[in-house]
Design a protein that fits this description.
single chain; about 260 residues; alpha/beta; Metallo-beta-lactamase, Chain A; seven-stranded mixed β-sheet; 8 helices; globular
Length: about 260
């Protein structure tokens, strides 16, 4: 399983692209490449790492805030320009089809008529298990300002939890077990703010779920240095967990 952090920033961060992950996992029929969220700044980042327009299999959208989905029109425009042929799946909560189609129409009004490859939509409901692209999917709503599904993905080579935005809720604990890594939005160090998680509370979430790895993303732009400093100076407090504060382009392989 390979994870590339295309972006790690929050919506207004001028230094770091929006939080997004390019994930490669082994499914029932072979390798599957997924893009987890595609905000304003992500299409350009994606094409730094993916040169083949047919390489991507699935796009997952955690929720319908612009820094998590508004890069889709540009992604699709570039696929069209590059001559993509393979079908593309969009997976998300109810409303995913409407949101993607409306964003395309607003951004490039004739794009939907020009795209030559097929694309379809899969809607995910909370706590139900799905098999999509040969992988197991199971989501739970987090405590965000808009409905946001945190998602557990399981393949033949491992499992991850990707939060999107928002702290875990009780159902989150029911689905996040035996995952190899938790990728969790961590807006501030130790302060609760409506709709977002904080790093120290998230560390306890990781411990409770017995995950061996914890990646902090989507940190508030002025809080990132404080969070980095805290974990650098208190490593003895979390010797049981591998902590990552990745930058854009950070690549992690889990075997």
């Amino acid at each position: 399983m390979e994870i590339i952090f295309l972006g790690v920033g929050e919506a207004c961060d001028e230094r770091f692209p929006n939080t997004s992950v390019l994930l490669s996992m082994r499914g029932e029929a072979g390798e599957v490449k997924l893009l987890l969220d595609c905000g304003f700044t992500i299409a350009h980042e994606f094409f730094k790492y993916v040169k083949d327009p047919d390489e991507l299999d699935v796009v997952w959208i955690s929720h319908f805030h612009g820094d998590h989905f508004m890069g889709l029109p540009l992604l699709l425009l570039r696929f069209w320009e590059m001559g993509r042929k393979r079908p593309l799946s969009f997976v998300g909560q109810p409303g995913i089809s409407r949101v993607v189609r409306e964003s395309m129409k607003l951004s490039f009004p004739t794009l939907a008529d020009r795209i030559s490859f097929e694309y379809w939509f899969e809607e995910i409901e909370e706590m139900k298990e799905y098999c999509i692209a040969g992988l197991s999917w199971r989501g739970a709503y987090t405590g965000h300002t808009q409905p946001n599904l945190g998602m557990v993905l399981r393949g033949k080579d491992g499992a991850i939890y990707y939060s999107g935005d928002g702290p875990p809720q009780e159902n989150t604990f029911r689905i996040v077990e035996d995952v190899d890594i938790i990728i969790q939005e961590s807006f501030l160090l130790d302060t609760d703010i409506y709709g977002h998680g904080n790093a120290l509370a998230n560390l306890e979430f990781v411990r409770r779920c017995r995950s061996p790895r914890f990646a902090l993303v989507h940190m508030q732009r002025d809080a990132r240095e404080e969070i980095e400093r805290y974990f650098a100076h208190n490593s003895s407090l979390y010797e049981d967990i591998e902590i990552y504060i990745p930058g854009p382009g950070y690549r992690l392989t889990i075997e």
